[in-house]
Specification:
The protein contains 10 helices and 13 strands. The protein is α/β, with parallel strands linked by helices. The strands form 2 sheets. Strands 1, 2, 3, 4, 5, 7, 8, 9, 10, 12 and 13 form an 11-stranded mixed sheet that branches. It has a two-stranded parallel ribbon with strand order 6-11.
Amino acid sequence: MKTRKMIMFTGAAIMAAGMMAGCGSNTKETTAAPTTAAATTAAETTKETAAEAEKTTEAAGAELSGSISMSGSTSMEKFGNALAESFMEKYPDVTVTVEFTGSSAGVEAALSGASDIGNSSRNLKDEEKSAGAVENIVAIDGIAVAVDPKNTVTDLTKDQLISIYTGEVKNWSDLGGENMPIVVVGREAGSGTRGAFEEILGIEDKCVYANELDSTGAVMAKVASTPGAIGYISLDAVDDSVIALKLEGVAPSAETIKSGEYFLSRPFVMATKGEISEQNELVKALFDYVYSEEGQELAASVGLITVK
């Protein structure tokens, strides 16, 4: 009898120990499972957050789509092309087209709706403003007075420059140079560069031109290849094919224009019909970009003076 009781007691103890061991094992598994699940969930959440952030970044550049048209000043060609390329790189679904037809034609195109923006390398005229054109100045440009590379004259006073373009002085020898006829080259009527140049000098409708050409590049090419030639071009277009003269002893540069020492400068205008706030989302986005730090750095990179 005692033996039977001992066997029963021993069996009960073994069963109890087994149950306790089983409970311990279950406790470990229960504790470990939530920890592993939480880590997996956190990892998945991080991946999802990163994916969402990436999608948001991609969406920021893809939220704009459509086309923007600009036309106008040939002097704004370098800036216009750089702006279009940079903006399209930022917004791949946007197409920006730029035509170089002259300032007056550009403003007219903006007013008629043929272009979203009319580029003008001069201030807008009163009649253009009266018709609804708004003057949005995006940069400042200097006007360089260029001569052929063999010309020995390197500096002119304002009065001398006026006398050349009004036909009063016709030979470089009268200005300390060689005995050589002065070939006066300028832009066509309606050119923003011509308008600004003549207005600054006060010689509107008084100029005597040997050649009137329809683009900045054409003027520079003519001056570079013609002995005795003189012409005015956008400062950012100047290269080694011509000599940019000093005026009143001051060489043209961003610094001298900002300081006011160099007197031949004009605004670069992106004209719109109505205020910027009245334009479509694409055009407003383009102006936001132009006036941003990145846009102003772009203007400076092509030789212009920033407005901010």
